[in-house]
């Protein structure tokens, strides 16, 4: 794989993740060719002891200038321990790389402060003496307010004799003798290693989402309500990414398009492998997820995920992707490609707030309504349906429809190389015959009456053939739509 291709298939970025009822927390997304990795930050021991993450104990000394060189946020009033929010560069030799921004302070000189309020922890640190031993653990999912910048009201003074107070939502450097000029934060590369132990803050895998046959959605499940700059990815086995919140609408679209592209490439590769086991007339042209709109508007769930596949002469609708040959016999519904019509819906035709929709009308006149996530998904479906129809037209070449004309059973044959032939079913006598190229228009009354406009090959005049034709298996509207699609393919 060349470098350009690798770049197109891989994307990395930081987002927020809403996982269940928890408050959103920062994660890193890493999109590879066949998997989406969701990672969270953790502090791990990388040398001196087995690879693990957990509690650490570190002893630091108070300096004349700069004090402990720490700032803290949070407290029990926010249902979290107090957390280190800033570390002074001047203190890095004493800290020895064992403390990190995001560490929750669990004990101070053996005193359990896990459930102490912010000001209580400040007082314990103030009275801790010149040397303090901290037991800490990295808080991977810190509440959003811990990431807020310093508030102007929390300006720090060089002396810890001040009687002022600070908000637990802001950095408390005031009571820790934190020097006001030391506002820089340490980078991971600047922390020195501790003898025998070395700790690092790293991105660790939280969840892995295989992309083959996975689906993604910007909408609230079952509804037409679109999340703002957010989406979720659901693997074929049901594992869900949680709600991924992007920084902007552009960022969200970029992620969705990148994920959709990788899923599409995997699907194409999978189709090629599956088609090796199927004869030429049973090849798969398309597979992919859609959301079907429920016809019963009284239901709370308006949309249900459905997996569509175009294979051979049929359109299959599944509740889950077919994996085995047996699965193809267990489709929820199956339609003959040459007996259905597909319509890409314009904005004026949409039934709700969902975009990128199409309808499929079956031979019985039943309308199915589907939604896809992106315009590229809609384009992919439209192209695939046209391809499947074209292949089926080439394969069957000729189709005859039974109808009743003036109380007589008639046959209307469409031959995809010869054109139209209307004949008496009993005598086989041909009533009229025209080529596809002579068809200049057709219309129907929505029930049974079809009007064909043909051009006379010799006089070039338009001849109207108006016949009250009662289709036995299909409405005139359905036939008219299908006729237009077939005509465009044949011509």
TrEMBL record:
SMART domains: PDZ, PH
Cell compartments where the protein resides: Cytoplasm, Cytoskeleton; Nucleus
CDD domains in UniProt: PDZ_syntrophin-like (cd06801), PH (cd00821)
InterPro entries from the UniProt entry: PDZ (IPR001478), PDZ_sf (IPR036034), PH-like_dom_sf (IPR011993), PH_domain (IPR001849), Syntrophin (IPR015482), Syntrophin_4th (IPR055108)
Residue stretches making up the PH domain: 283-390
Keyword Nucleus recorded: yes
GO molecular function: actin binding; structural molecule activity
Main location per the UniProt record: cytoplasm
Keywords from the named record: Actin-binding, Cytoplasm, Cytoskeleton, Nucleus
Lineage: superkingdom: Eukaryota
Domain PDZ: start-end pairs: 57-140
Pfam families xrefs: PDZ, Syntrophin_4th
GO cellular component, one term: syntrophin complex
Function summary: Adapter protein that binds to and probably organizes the subcellular localization of a variety of proteins. May link various receptors to the actin cytoskeleton and the dystrophin glycoprotein complex. May participate in regulating the subcellular location of diacylglycerol kinase-zeta to ensure that diacylglycerol is rapidly inactivated following receptor activation.
Family: Belongs to the syntrophin family.
Annotated protein name in UniProt: Gamma-1-syntrophin
Gene: SNTG1
């Amino acid at each position: 794989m060349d470098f350009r291709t690798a770049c197109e298939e891989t994307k990395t970025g930081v987002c927020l993740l809403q996982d269940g009822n928890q408050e959103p927390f920062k994660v890193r997304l890493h999109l590879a060719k066949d998997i989406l990795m969701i990672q969270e930050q953790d502090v791990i021991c990388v040398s001196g002891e087995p690879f693990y993450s957990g509690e650490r104990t570190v002893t630091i000394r108070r300096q004349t200038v700069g004090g402990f060189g720490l700032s803290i946020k949070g407290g029990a009033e926010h249902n979290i321990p107090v957390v280190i929010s800033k570390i002074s560069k001047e203190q890095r030799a004493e800290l020895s790389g064992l403390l990190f921004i995001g560490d929750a302070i669990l004990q101070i000189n053996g005193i359990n402060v896990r459930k102490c309020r912010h000001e209580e922890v400040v007082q314990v640190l103030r009275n801790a003496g010149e040397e303090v031993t901290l037991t800490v653990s990295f808080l991977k999912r810190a509440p959003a307010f811990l990431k807020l910048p310093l508030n102007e009201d929390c300006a720090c003074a060089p002396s810890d004799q001040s009687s002022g107070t600070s908000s637990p939502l802001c950095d408390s450097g005031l009571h820790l003798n934190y020097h006001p000029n030391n506002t820089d934060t340490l980078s991971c590369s600047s922390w020195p290693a501790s003898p025998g132990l070395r700790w690092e803050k790293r991105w660790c895998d939280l969840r892995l989402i295989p992309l083959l046959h996975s689906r993604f959605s910007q909408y609230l499940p079952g509804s037409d309500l679109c999340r703002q700059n957010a989406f979720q990815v659901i693997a074929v086995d049901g594992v869900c990414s949680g709600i991924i919140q992007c920084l902007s609408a552009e960022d969200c679209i970029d992620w969705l398009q990148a994920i959709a592209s990788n899923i599409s490439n995997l699907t194409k590769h999978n189709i090629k492998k599956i088609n090796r086991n199927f004869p030429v007339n049973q090849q798969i042209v398309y597979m992919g997820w859609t959301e079907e709109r429920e016809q019963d508007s009284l239901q709370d769930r308006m949309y249900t995920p459905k997996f569509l596949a175009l294979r051979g002469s049929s359109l299959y609708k599944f509740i889950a992707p077919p994996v085995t040959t047996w699965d193809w016999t267990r489709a929820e519904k199956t339609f003959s490609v040459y007996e259905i019509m597909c319509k890409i819906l314009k904005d004026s035709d949409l039934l709700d707030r969902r975009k990128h929709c199409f309808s499929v009308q079956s031979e019985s006149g039943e309308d199915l309504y589907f939604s896809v996530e992106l315009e590229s998904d809609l384009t992919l479906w439209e192209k695939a349906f046209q391809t499947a129809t074209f292949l089926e037209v080439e394969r069957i070449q000729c189709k005859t429809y039974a109808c009743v004309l003036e109380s007589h059973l008639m046959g209307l044959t469409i031959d995809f190389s010869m054109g139209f032939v209307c004949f008496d079913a009993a005598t086989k006598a041909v009533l009229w015959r025209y080529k596809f190229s002579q068809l200049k228009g057709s219309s129907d009354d929505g029930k049974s009456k079809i009007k064909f406009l043909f051009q006379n090959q010799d006089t070039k005049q338009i001849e109207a053939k108006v016949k009250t034709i009662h289709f036995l298996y299909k409405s005139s509207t359905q036939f008219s739509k299908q006729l237009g699609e077939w005509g465009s393919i044949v011509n």
